[in-house]
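Might I ask for a little of your time on a matter of protein folding? The record follows directly beneath this note:
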Amino acid sequence: MAALLLRRLIESLFSLVCLVCAVFVVARLTGDPGKLYLPVNATDEMVAEFNRLHGFDQPIWRQFLDFAAGLLKLDFGESLRRQQPALAVVLEAYPATLRLVVVTIFTALVLGVVIGCLAAFRPRSSLDRMSTALSISAASFPDFWIALMGILVFAVALQWLPTSGTGTPLHWILPVGVLIMRPLGSLVQVVRGSMLETLSSPYIEAAKGRGTPPSRIIFLHALRNAAIPAITVLGIQTAGILNGAVVVETIFGWPGIGRLMISAIFERDFAVVQAAVVVTALAIFLLNIIIDILYGVIDPRVRT
């Protein structure tokens, strides 16, 4: 198990280095910050002085070395727009995204396991056909389209829900409802397939022969062995939820890391963009390591 975790750490570190290099270069392709933050009638000398003060007049390789040196000290630089340390700006916005992601994951996990187990226990029933059709449909539509349709139907036409904000529980319904669609659809199908395979195992047939209640067979005996594929999908989908939060937060005005990242890109606030991407990547890498640990807890064979 230790060797597996060490390998994952090395792979994550290599991926993080590649990501840092990519985001540094791509962020600077958005344009010259001096022309955005200075007045329209600013002279070339004023732009040059602005770039000198913020280090943008240095060669790109020198800027990267300065950025890498600061990164080792968790110093991403100062936000041009907010005049604060970039890491502090990102960490201030991150709890809102974290709450949204945690609620989405928990809801998707509970609904996916329950629906998938019930569909597997009654294959080819009405519930099974309906859950399959709905899960495939949910996993097929893009997040932005579902978000726009949700606003159009539930906020504009029916006026049941607010279009943006975080003030009340009603503000959570549309963002969580949009983010949950793709992971829920995948989880239902994976749990159903794994449970169908597990329920046909000899030890499950023996448990049925002993008169074990169906709920005990599903949730105590079968679900443990069918959990690894579900955890794998949940880990992949959680990364997708974090990525989807960028779109969802922008559409619904959710004050999280996604909305901050989009605004920082348009503002050419390089330090904030870099800090947001690195912090999000670290969260995804940490999640993958936690999933590997859960593998070892559920299936002892993984530890060797």
